[in-house]
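Lab meeting, action items carried over

1. Structure of the two-component assembly. Owner: GW. Status: complete.
Input record:
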Amino acid sequence: MTKGEVIPKWFEGNMPEGSYRSIFKWGDPDAYKHPNQRLYRHMLNVFEMEDEDFSEAVGFGFEEVRQEVPVRLTSKQVDFFVELLGEENVFSDTYTRVKRSYGKGMIDALRLRHEIVENVADLVLAPRNREDVEAIVAFCDEEQIPVYVFGGGSSVTRGTEAVKGGVTLDMGVHMKRVLDFNEKDQTITVEAGMMGPELEALLNEAPSTLQAKRRYTCGHFPQSFEFSSVGGWVVTRGAGQNSTYYGKIEDLVLAQEYVTPIGTLQTGAYARQATGPDYNQIMIGSEGAFGVLTSVTLKLHRYLPEAKRYFATMFASWEDGLAAVREIMQGEFGVPSVFRLSDAEETDVGMKLYGIEGTPADTILKALGFEPMKKCLMLGMVDGDKAYTKTVMRRVKKVLRKYKTFDLTPFKATQRWEHGRFLDPYMREDLNDYGLLIDTLECSVRWDQLEEVHEQVRAFVKNRPKTVCMTHLSHLYPQGANLYFIFIAKMNEIEEYLDLQYGILEHIKESGAAMSHHHGVGKQTSPWLEEMAGSAYMGILRTLKDHFDPHNIMNPGGTLGLDMNEAQANKVWSKDL
Amino acid sequence: MTKGEVIPKWFEGNMPEGSYRSIFKWGDPDAYKHPNQRLYRHMLNVFEMEDEDFSEAVGFGFEEVRQEVPVRLTSKQVDFFVELLGEENVFSDTYTRVKRSYGKGMIDALRLRHEIVENVADLVLAPRNREDVEAIVAFCDEEQIPVYVFGGGSSVTRGTEAVKGGVTLDMGVHMKRVLDFNEKDQTITVEAGMMGPELEALLNEAPSTLQAKRRYTCGHFPQSFEFSSVGGWVVTRGAGQNSTYYGKIEDLVLAQEYVTPIGTLQTGAYARQATGPDYNQIMIGSEGAFGVLTSVTLKLHRYLPEAKRYFATMFASWEDGLAAVREIMQGEFGVPSVFRLSDAEETDVGMKLYGIEGTPADTILKALGFEPMKKCLMLGMVDGDKAYTKTVMRRVKKVLRKYKTFDLTPFKATQRWEHGRFLDPYMREDLNDYGLLIDTLECSVRWDQLEEVHEQVRAFVKNRPKTVCMTHLSHLYPQGANLYFIFIAKMNEIEEYLDLQYGILEHIKESGAAMSHHHGVGKQTSPWLEEMAGSAYMGILRTLKDHFDPHNIMNPGGTLGLDMNEAQANKVWSKDL
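Predicted assembly:
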């Protein structure tokens, strides 16, 4: 057999119950998306690996979580929670506590693959309603017990990690109800534990589920959609893949309710107001450091799938692609909802991943002189009313006519991307199983600084031999865009991984970009926050923190750079594990 | 002569220099817009007045400001400012100090007409740059001298009033420069004292003024446009009349610089980020209570006047109008830029004001059964690229076909409104001269509460005999709108006026609306802020205030409800003047 024709034995099947893998595996326990053979061969090439290297996994993480992490609360404290919530809503077994303290970052998977269990809540609690949360927070404030919150569990910033022990509130058990639906206002109020897919299904079928006249959408589809909660969207300032039209979550929130150590608050519920600093925008992005988000009122959009349109184009160069997407965003004719531009390296990988390589389109592209490691793929989807989507499509095409492009719309490149858009993260486990780490970092840039940020980060990553660095723009604005980096490298050690990740963060910061456009800060990127945002901003954060949470019980342990320990502050946290 | 055929001797000409009128008169000293005869006759009717009542003015405010308000600073303090800024940038004469401490609210005009001079800064300072502001704020913090800021001077909330004396920084003397223009990012950075018309002219003519490739607009046109500064827009959370497309000022700001007692800060300059609470949105709307806004980076739009479209329609009823504009705002096909719906009373007055009454359109309207005190006028303007404006126009028309309407587009009703849109406030002085007070109050509502707020406020105002109460929606959103009240009454006493104004504020608050959509809070509406926004919000405000301004030198005296005296807190402030 020639090299690369073997199909590696990607794992599929039942993970051992109670195993580390059952915690770190992304998404649906029974779902998989394996690298296709083109992508597999690409990796063999890049990493100078042989089929043999994929004959035996470095590890699957099948080992059972055997650690017993003692509960460090007093029995009086435990009794309080049991009495308040009932036995059935208090979990003290280590497995549940690990599962509800770890997120889905590479650092989480890596630690679990190394059988490292740390920073685990003492108890997992499942509050039934706001009153439960109020009682828990009041008690914890009195007893100085740390309070963490777990929503969908897809944090990639160690956002949910119970660094100081204490309790983790699992919002998804009970607190996932619809509290109000107002069709006149086009709003829905849900508890924070409501999961994305459930909410979206409710809204799409609103005539039957909510006795509505019309169908609605939230328009918010983060890559983690399947395993993301409304509360998580809000406290991290998340973005959906369609945000170029619908906006980020901060644009979609009308009102919020928080339970904080100093009391419960309800923000104003108005589209806009001029009554001082923006209440909602002070609370959004607070990452559990001010209080527990209990409910959210979201602005809705009409659900009009019949009007949805797609486009896809290949540019001859990154420069052309950047100029064109900027021109579209500044064109005053409406905007696409999904709008992405991949750099040359990501384009080449994407051609493999989305099955364009080897098709007639690929042949034509080559013939027309669209060169590998130069050409750049743009994908777009247009949402809205039919007349609107038609107008945007026509004007996008008009802009594109100024550039050398090859139209991939007929080849359904965007539909192919859409089809697998929530599945790509599932490939991570396959890569990890064979010693390849994959991670993503993203930042927010203005157009004028974009190219430099891209160059600096790439230069740093590519300086490391045999390392993939793919970049795309997504979430576009008239003034700039989100720049999203994906890197893949053959490595297995935590320190090596963190050296690369931290190095990228340094270069993002030095190049002047905002550290995060939608991943939040958490405890992982927090050491860079002050350097990026300035000490004046940190002063505001600390002031608000002291106000809401004078005893530092809310998500303590470095969240938002607030109470970092020495290792965090020195950027060596977890390197020594 | 029959009643109403006399043309009142509305004042035109040179106001005596140094007079009260030269301070309270709205806008350009040499510009006027007098009520036309239809409006005049309407007032005769409503207020049961005779032509004779307009033969002699109650007063013109021609008296010279003769008060001598002593400067209560020490000579050492005065010397500091003179040494720092030079004699030419320090003003100690009472006239200048009154002129730079009063705003353009009815309460300001009324006090000056009553020759009441109070709450005047001790010195007016004209800082030349950020360094000057830093030196002033540092010195004032040390010496505990209050610091007020004067921009365009069009506050209607007593925002600039120097309640505690001290110094007022006049930003418009020097600090009105362009600091940066970035065409790639479509941004401009200006000092806070830059005035609206100057900025807009610069942008519209960007190819010659800024060596740009294209023409731009800020898209921000408050009614006070001619006498409003960029800094004022930002610190009050203002809105332009075209905000339904361009957004409010908080949507147009990319970055800001503030000089606060604890230091100078520069917010992040990214379209969006996920790095904690929103830095920009914490500072916008701070109304000078946290620090002095020194410069602003604004997001720009392309200036495409050739694509602008207008529409105007008469609805048979308020209910129809509301349903239609909501349907348009929720239609997902783009939005108008100016979008207004007048209630029945405002429609009838507007027909007179904008010269529609008595035209063929009016005759046809009557014949078709569009009844007075029932029919409602909608005005719209669509901005953007040609394809976009065409799409929006077509879809607006499609929505309107569902309702009984009469198309006023051919009669250029919106153009008539646009032509005079910055001039309407000039009529205030004419009315005041003859003992009629006119004032405006506005609030932010969700669709679902709109009708109740409208009914409650109207019921209260109309309970007073012979009082005009006109209402319109402007600044529309998918989730609600700005509801704007204009009242006119024959009265001359401050207490009587404040009773009416405060009563309206009570009813706005009780009906659940947000106290202000774009006028800000200032010192006038601040007693209602806590009741509306809640004590948790006030706790955040106080915390931020203490953080930035520990010695309470920044705009003290009740701004944002922060340090109200007893009279303010008890809502009797100024009633006893």
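2. GW to write a short summary for the group page. Key points so far: The mean pLDDT of chain B is 96. The first helix of chain B runs from residue 21 to 24.
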